[in-house]
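Form 7-S
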Amino acid sequence: ACALHACLNKNTYSPEKCDKDLRRLYECCRDFYAKAGEGAESTACPMPRVLERWFKDHPK
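Output:
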């Protein structure tokens, strides 16, 4: 989350330059939800269904 925040601050007008940092955060979030199970919550991560939709829309 910190790397993404720093990247977005640095690239205010080019957020696409932060796609790698966003992907790393979302992969971390997906791992968190997989380990924590149903009902897990995080202030740093979008809801699991939002994550899955993002991964569908942004294949590697």
